[in-house]
Amino acid sequence: MRRFHPNLYRVIQEWEHAKGEPLREISPNVILIRSADLAVKFLRNQNELTIEEQSGFYRSANFNPYPKGVREELSGGIRSLLRKYDPADLWLESFSAMRAETRGWGIEVVGSYFSEIMVRAGVREEKSSVGALRALLRGYIRVVVIEDAVNRRYPLRTAELNMNYYATRVGRILRLLDDGWTESPRDIIDLVCQATGGLCVSEEDLGELYLRLILSLVGFTGITLEWLLICHHEALGKLVDGYPSGGKGDVMRLIAETLREHPTAWRLVRTSISTTTIANKVFPAGTDFVVPTSPKAFEYGSGRLPMNWGLAFGVGESACPGRSGALDALAEIAFEVVRRGYQQESARLSRPYAASLLAPPRMAVRLG
Ligand code: HEM
Questions:
Q1: InterPro entries recorded for this chain (predicted)?
Q2: Which of 57, 63, 191 has the most ligand 1 atoms within 8 A of CB, as the residue to mutate?
């Protein structure tokens, strides 16, 4: 029988009613852990890494997670790339007068907006491998980010194979495009090549790291954009005339409210690196524990789940380096979408879909 990713939202709701059950296995080797204390104790005592030291993003089969210095360099690089970022006007063409579907249109639009951060145009253009990389990125965003991470169209095994397929090919091209050290990274290619330069990183691991960054860049931001428009397009419409000279604070509040109710990055995984026993159950090394972004935030009473599962951008050492860049991009893109005329065929909100990202319900929208 084929095994599909579980719909975590449903599992969590059931679990919420099963009072006193500290753990729930949602698929082999993936465990939801209810008590923050338990999670902290387990990960601190049994492993060499604390919750704060692990990362849900900077990891691969061989580097779980990448060493601290590498992660700091990557996060610093992301902040600086996003701070300086000025999208080419080309992105505006990406959603002219089209009928689209949630879940996916936001990711495509954000992908065009951030295209220059993924592969900087110009200096690399003479290399034929740039065309191949762009084609692979389009395929990756469609297949892995939209169809797998958001819509869960594939069984787990196929999802893994899809990731491996893109990671291997992308990693090979990144090696060809690696120009060595540049004073400040021009794009995510420079960033991952330079930050991992001192490590023995395989092509596949390099590709996976790059693609995980693309997933965070376009996946989380794109799905937040879809939620923002679904929840607040009317309020955005009232603010649009004042932007950018005014209204920034109001937009940020709308985005914060969207993320508070629908935290797109709700499912953060930490992997155990030794066998341990919790609540009389033995878990082998390599078990994935779904833990909250902040142990404190996990200590809920009877609130709704997973809406109150933590802070939208994480906390502590592994908090999101893309926060400020994502917020600015969201405001800019959301206003452009509203300015061009955003319509929703149905405003009825049904149950969201909790896969890797907390995706909005399906509905048709019209852009531009
Ligand atoms: C609305 C959009 C976004 C949301 C909601 C979001 C959310 C988060 C959260 C909750 C974490 C903590 C993960 C953990 O503790 O395991 C995180 C980490 C991270 N985010 Fe974002 N993110 C967003 C946009 C971005 C963007 C635009 C980038 C740019 C590449 C990015 C890159 C990362 C990276 C690299 C990490 C790992 C940091 C580390 O482990 O040290 N994110 N993000």
A1: Cyt_P450_sf (IPR036396)
A2: 57
Same domain, 205 and 288: no
Number of residues in the chain: 368
Distance 320 CA to ligand 1 centre (A): 4
Do 137 and 150 fall into the same domain? yes
Instruction: Give the separation between CA 277 and CA 50, rounded to whole angstroms.
Output: 17
Given the structure tokens 């009389």, which residue do they identify?
280
**What is the C-alpha to C-alpha distance for residues 255 and 278, in angstroms, rounded to an integer?**
38
> Using CA atoms in the order 140, 111, 263, 205, what is the torsion angle rounded to 10 degrees?
40
- More confident site: 125 or 179: 179
Please tell me the distance from the alpha carbon of residue 11 to that of residue 128, in angstroms, as a whole number. Answer: 47
Residues 6+ apart with CB under 8 A from 300: 308, 309
Q: Note the pLDDT tens digit of each residue in 104-120.
A: 999 999 999 999 999 98
Tokens of 268: 């953060």
Place of tokens 């089209």: 98
> Ligand 1 mean position to 52 CA, how many Å?
14
Closest Cα to atom 42, ligand 1: which residue?
A: 322
Give the angle 235-240-243 at the CA atoms, nearest 5°.
125
Q: Which domain holds residue 366?
A: 66-232+353-368
* Higher per-residue pLDDT: 326 or 259: 326
Residues 318-355: pLDDT tens digits? 778 999 999 999 999 999 999 999 998 765 555 556 66
How many independent structural domains does the chain possess? Answer: 2
